[in-house]
Amino acid sequence: MPKRIMLGALYVVASLFLANASAFAARTPSPPGAEEYIIWPADGTVIHGGKLWVRMGLRNMGVCPKGVNIPNTGHHHLLIDTDLPPLDQEIPSDRNHLHFGAGETDARIELSPGKHTLQLLLGDYNHVPHDPPVYSKKITIIVK
């Protein structure tokens, strides 16, 4: 392979690496003592019928809509029956990762009968977890 093509390819690879590294390095900081938690339901709650309200809590930070870049704020994401996603990337948006980008602090959800896990993860204005990440304890509920 000619030297010029090889150097060009190396330049492209290095540029992509640096662009990705800087994107990860630019995560939004969270303040000391920030805590996200599920107000309701409590761990172990038995729900009769699949519809329920989830109430979301946050300490030492504020809630604001997606796209709003204000220090020490973010918006809730509810993780259902899944583990935490990679904490240095945008939070997925699917049936297991619900986004509350309008700044909601409670949500009506519907679950099928059975055992389910719920966990909250705070995202910044770009849906990326803060640094350090702010997330709740994972709870288990049963729907009958």
Give structural attributes.
single chain, 144 residues, alpha+beta, Immunoglobulin-like, 6-stranded mixed beta sheet, 3-stranded antiparallel beta sheet, 1 helix, 9 strands, 16% helix, 35% strand, elongated
Task: Please describe what this structure looks like.
With 144 residues, the chain is of the alpha+beta class. It has one domain (30-143): Immunoglobulins (Immunoglobulin-like), CATH 2.60.40.10. The protein has one helix at residues 3-25, and strands spanning 35-40, 46-47, 51-59, 62-63, 73-80, 97-99, 106-110, 114-123, 139-143. The strands form two sheets. Strands 2, 4, 5, 6, 8 and 9 form a six-stranded mixed β-sheet that branches. The longest helix has 23 residues, at 3-25. Residues 6-25 have low confidence and may be disordered.
CATH class: Mainly Beta
Domains, number: 1
Largest sheet geometry: 6 strands, mixed
| DSSP, total strands | 9
Total helical segments: 1
Structural class per helix/strand content?
alpha+beta
Helix content: 10-25%
User: Compute the gyration radius: what is it?
Assistant: 19 Å
Helix and strand element order: HEEEEEEEEE
Summarize the structure.
With 144 residues, the protein is an alpha+beta fold. The protein has one helix spanning 3-25, and strands at 35-40, 46-47, 51-59, 62-63, 73-80, 97-99, 106-110, 114-123, 139-143.
